Amino acid sequence: MTNxxxxxxxxxxxxxTLSNRVGLAxxxxxxxxxxxxxxxxxxxxYTSFARGGFGxxxxxxxxxxxxxxxxxxxxPGIINDEQEQAWKKVVDxxxxxxxxxxxxxxxxxxxxxxxxxxxxxxxPSSVQPKGEQMEFYGGKGPFKMPNEATKEDITNVIDGxxxxxxxxxxxxxxxVEIHGANGYILDQFLTEYTNKxxxxxxxxxxxxVRLLVEVSKSVREAxxxxxxxxxxxxxxxxxxxxxxxxxxxxxxxxxxGQLGNAGLDYIHVTEYEAWQPAFPEGEGTSATxxxxxxxxxxxAALAKKYASLPVIANGHLxxxxxxxxxxxxxxxxxxxxxxxxxxxxxxVNKVKNGEAIEDFQPEKMLSPDAKIKEFEA
Length: 377
Hints:
Elements: E1 11-13, E2 16-18, E3 22-24, E4 27-28, H1 40-51, E5 56-62, H2 81-96, E6 100-105, E7 122-123, E8 147-148, H3 151-171, E9 175-179, H4 185-190, H5 205-208, H6 210-223, E10 228-234, H7 248-259, E11 266-270, H8 299-307, E12 311-314, H9 320-328, E13 334-337, H10 339-343, H11 347-352, H12 362-365, E14 375-376
Parallel strand pairs: 3-5, 3-13, 5-6, 6-9, 7-8, 9-10, 10-11, 11-12, 12-13
Antiparallel strand pairs: 1-2, 4-14
């Protein structure tokens, strides 16, 4: 039987102590009110994972401004006192069950498919997004052609993250996670084919990661040292699952190196399978072992190497042996679960007690009649 005890150790993130190393991954839900208010149903939902043993909860993406950030209708926001107070009920309920809760701040940029404030979208460059909108979240057909963000727009993006982080701290959250992954606006700046800018935010990897660093530093300055600030990073996107960074491990060194000096408490790396080599052999990577074999380091391992920060790994780690191994081998410090958590709100307690884990069955979770829409993004 696999020794999973490492999963249940206490760990410090910043100045906060987590009761174990297993968290709930952020998952888009669109179950807020049309005005973006968190609901009692959402409080019950998140609290169920805390009751099931998860040491920390990362919320669905929360829009941080009343301009271009909202990505989906019925997405929650945290841009005013009313939304802050609605979230306070969720936070208090999770805390009562002994877990910590981190609010994920998300600006959708060009991938917005439902915004009650504006009809246009912005992006680093006016480039047509790949793929089509997700009908499950109320969209249909191609994404809109975005407008290229002006310098004023960029300033507004940064300020939105800052003000939202302040609201999150006031609401009692233990921290915030800056969404820099999955094809949303910060990832659009990071990605060479969506960022065609010729100013200080475009061109080289150092320039393309600049906005992520500026947001991270600005949020840290706004909330102080005693509040968790993390960032989520990925290669794949909701509209381009197989994307790989163009400059491979050299790019990873620059990206994670820059983020490692941006005042962050952790980096949350998400890949389809967290243990797989980030860049397969022959694609510009070293021969370092991955978490579970040869073929090059995983993206989590590269984050750990170059950022020198605690790393959260995400991506099909539902098997306790895989979850334990990626930590034991030093490639990550914590893990998050998405679909496995949906199927097992008590995954942590089950593993601790040696009980069987239920398989994720999308036909049950994602049926058109489901009262709560849940999907990892």
